[in-house]
Write a structure and sequence with these properties.
With about 240 residues, this protein is α+β, with helices and mostly antiparallel strands. It contains four helices and eleven strands; from the N terminus they run H-H-H-E-E-E-E-E-E-E-E-E-E-E-H.
């Protein structure tokens, strides 16, 4: 009888040990892994949200940069106010068309010089002797002695822009005195020359005229007498 009881006790003890081992194994793998998986999920979610937060924190900088073009456009639309500080809208640039005075006999020196080439031509030179820039408008209005007619301008000589003279600079006009082939009529000798200056509108007065000296023998002219528009260089004026 004691032997049978002892065998049953050993069998029960072995079964208990087996169950304990199985329980420990399950707790060591399945339970711990499941808990680790659950605890890892919030961490992964939190980490994944960081890049989005970083990008949103940079958004104000991007918005600030996008304002620059419109600010520059606004400044470009009002250069006079931004550059000069004059809020009245007045342009202080002395070379602005509205600020340019007409060149005339009071602020320039004029010379008249016959040339050998082209034949029967004379060169007018006007030099700005003032302290401010001036504009040579259109073409010179010439008058020899008491002549009663006005020489015409050569249309092909009209420049693309008004000839503007800074202080000390010179402008030029070519004068065709007579026809090279002798086809001109009403020939005469001029001993006094008056050079008139035009204003902002054609045929208006630009101020006092000039009376440059002529050679002692005078200059011959006829009905072919004509002038070029004012030019920035002598070669263009004569050609």
């Amino acid at each position: 009888m004691r032997t049978f009881r002892h065998a049953r006790l050993l069998a029960a003890t072995g079964a208990a040990l087996t169950a304990l081992a199985l329980t420990a194994c399950e707790n060591g793998s399945g339970s711990r892994d499941e808990g680790a998986s659950k605890s890892a999920s919030p961490t992964a979610t939190k980490d994944a949200s960081k890049p989005a937060q970083d990008r949103s924190s940079q958004q104000p900088t991007q918005n600030t940069g996008s304002v620059q073009p419109s600010a520059q456009s606004s400044r470009a639309g009002k250069p006079a106010q931004n550059d000069t500080g004059d809020k009245s809208g007045k342009n202080d640039d002395p070379y602005a068309p509205e600020n340019l005075a007409s060149c005339n006999g009071s602020n320039t020196r004029t010379t008249a010089q016959p040339v050998s080439r082209p034949l029967n031509h004379m060169l007018l030179t006007v030099t700005n002797t003032g302290s401010k820039p001036c504009a040579l408008m259109y073409y010179p209005v010439l008058r020899f002695d008491e002549m009663q007619w006005v020489p015409q301008a050569i249309g092909d000589s009209k420049p693309q822009a008004v000839t503007t003279l800074a202080p000390g600079e010179s402008g030029y006009a070519g004068v065709r005195l007579s026809a090279a082939d002798g086809s001109g009529t009403g020939g005469d000798t001029g001993r006094k020359l008056t050079v008139g200056f035009q204003g902002r509108t054609p045929n208006s007065s630009g101020g006092p005229a000039a009376t440059p000296a002529l050679p002692a023998k005078g200059v011959h002219y006829d009905s072919a007498l004509s002038v070029t528009y004012w030019q920035t260089d002598a070669e263009t004026a004569l050609n």
